[in-house]
TrEMBL record:
Keywords: Cell membrane, Membrane, Transferase, Transmembrane, Transmembrane helix. Belongs to the glycosyltransferase 87 family. It is found in: Cell membrane. The chain crosses the membrane at residues 181-201, 213-244, 250-278, 285-308, 353-377, 422-441, 453-473. This is Glycosyltransferase 87 family protein. Residues 1-25 are annotated as: Disordered. Its main location: membrane. Pfam families: GT87 (PF09594). It is a multi-pass membrane protein.
Amino acid sequence: MSSPTDHDSAPQPAPASLDATQRVAPSRTEPLVAAASAPIGGPLGEHAAVGRHWFWTPQRVGLALATLALMLCWFGKGSCIQQYTDESGQNQLDWRAGRPYVAMCYSDIVPLYSREQLDQPGTFPYRTSWVDNAGTANAQVRYMEYPVLTGYFQWANAKLTTIWKTVSDAGWLPGALPVAIYFNITAFWLSAAWLVTVWAVGRTAGRRPWDAALAAISPLVLVHAFTNFDAIATAFAATGLLAWARRKPVLAGVLLGLGAAAKLYPLFLLGPLFLLCLRAGKFRYWARTAATTLVIWLAVNLPIALVYNTGWREFFRLNGERPMDPDSVYNVISYFTGWTGFDGPLRPGQTPTWLNLVSGGLFLLCCAGIAYLALAAPVRPRVAQLSFLVVAAFLLTNKVWSPQYSLWLVPLAVLAIPRWRLLLGWMLVDALVWVPRMFFYLGVDHKGLPEDWFLGFVVVRDLAVVGLCVLVIREILRPERDKVRLSGDDDPAGGVLDGARDVFVLKPAKEPVPA
């Protein structure tokens, strides 16, 4: 390793022919978009008046497309909030005959409404407890299992459901089962969160605002926008990156801190920012962001941790005790090899120590490799590139990859690898994993699919993500192939890093990187 140096490596390859104000038109640069534009006149002409329409800006087009995708997602999940009248004349949620799996409409939001005691009056997350498997040897006291901000979100929606139900009973609003009302209220706020995500991606993309359409129309949004509550975290993560891009490190810390209080993954973004700030000599900017992130996370968590400590620790306890997920790489290995070395079947309360060590160790090993890449690459990597690699490494090595976790990658992938065909191909493959997953859960006895089919799709999904990581690494090592830099930009999401000179590298270049 070399000592710190004032080496002035070239911050970017030579710009392409675009001037500083020109936008990238995907219909010119992406064959898929060019072909899709044929029914409306083909690719944008050289003399087209760009940016002059009074309303339909790229941002508004992206938000309109996202709204359409969210509507389709709601219709896809709507089958799971249908109701029927039972023999006693009571309205019930219609989950008969495996409807959530056959109709592929399953959403965690629906069962969590009653399982987390949100349908009961006077309950409060982290204070209210219940007993799973009561009366058995596996009985266990449980609390709200989500991070604090997500727990607040669920509780607030439950209270809004109670208000809606009261008003609807008075005849002023349409009525339905409380769980259906709860789902719709939750879906409304999750839709707003995803729209914020798309907006932030478009703002962060610089001269490539049309790339936000990839996040807007992602097949993963069609399937998983309402599968769980992850759109809240993506909104905070995306706006945190936007604040960093706008050179507002404190605001970035506020947003990342709130995101970490909703789902821990936005905290991972501090790692790439640290490495890039170290390389560029901008450590004090990172320190402000990191300190603010910690303060905000503590401000959200400390009141609950101090008052309801047992309930607050439930999220961490369950993550420690959780066995390997059906679509984790560890389950794939165990299933196809018959090896049970990942601690095998566990009883409630047992911790898969070996699995936790292997999972954590592999992630740290990947992070070490990413750190070396960040500090040794011929040109400083872009923020989105390293952020994508870190989050993808976490998902690939983690013992849990819940299907909605793939939403975490969407905004980062759009900013890191704006290659439309590749990204849409990966998103489609990842979204299609939902089909064999649902029919695997249905069970072979009920005309479902065997586990082999499901795990086969999981392997293809994992290979697709690995392929994207390889492409990102290749473009980091050969930045002249990076589409963002070919447009003439250095790092649109870089903020203070954009165009900055290196002050610390592991492999100082002896000559400028060729274009």
